[in-house]
Design goal:
2% strand, 198 residues
Length: 198
């Protein structure tokens, strides 16, 4: 990890400024404090992404997940509709006096779950998400974690620092990886291509 800290703390020999200064700085915050805060953000993201085992996704995977959400939501609405009709016609065929009230609550619960599934579908990854890939190359978790770190580095320092992203990924997941993983996923032409495909 020492090379990572060295990279974050390197200074320009002429100006004395950080070579990769933190992009965000409060009005009264020193450049050193801003740099430490940015490093902390990157390390927290690294730990979180590695712990959650963030993975890249193929378009087909997201499409299938979205279709499953839609199918399940539709099935729940059909069941809720059938329950409502049977309740209205007195055809629930249950003798318990509490059944009408319970079935009414169950019906509303089914509709709430259907709505939640539709909401879940709307939150799935979009085509321009950097974690979307055309095909899997290597371990999808290593790739996902490294891309997330590259995005965070660019956000905090204005540079992806692909070598640093690779080092942090290697340490966090105890694997070997190269700068190419985040470089190939986050190059501007590839991102533009994804955006135009939306």
């Amino acid at each position: 990890m020492q090379p990572v800290f060295n990279e974050f703390l390197r200074r320009d020999r002429e100006t004395g400024d950080f070579l990769y200064p933190a992009k965000f700085r409060n009005g009264n915050q020193s450049s050193e404090d801003a740099q430490v805060a940015a490093i902390r953000e990157v390390l927290q993201l690294t730990i979180s992404a590695a712990s959650d085992r963030i993975s890249v996704s193929k378009t087909e995977q997201i499409d299938e997940a979205g279709q499953r959400c839609s199918d399940h939501a539709a099935q729940l609405r059909i069941i809720a509709h059938d329950m409502a009709v049977e309740a209205e016609l007195g055809m629930l065929e249950l003798d318990d006096p509490a059944t009408p009230a319970l079935s009414s609550r169950d019906l509303l619960a089914l509709l709430r779950v259907a709505k939640w599934l539709e909401h879940l579908k709307s939150g799935l990854r979009r085509p321009d998400d950097p974690l979307m890939v055309d095909r899997h190359r290597g371990d999808p978790i290593v790739r996902g974690v490294q891309i997330m770190i590259g995005v965070k580095l660019a956000e905090q320092f204005g540079e992806r620092l692909d070598g640093t992203a690779a080092t942090l990924t290697s340490v966090a997941l105890d694997v070997e990886t190269t700068p190419r993983t985040s470089r190939s996923a986050l190059t501007e032409p590839k991102l533009q291509k994804r955006r135009s495909a939306r």
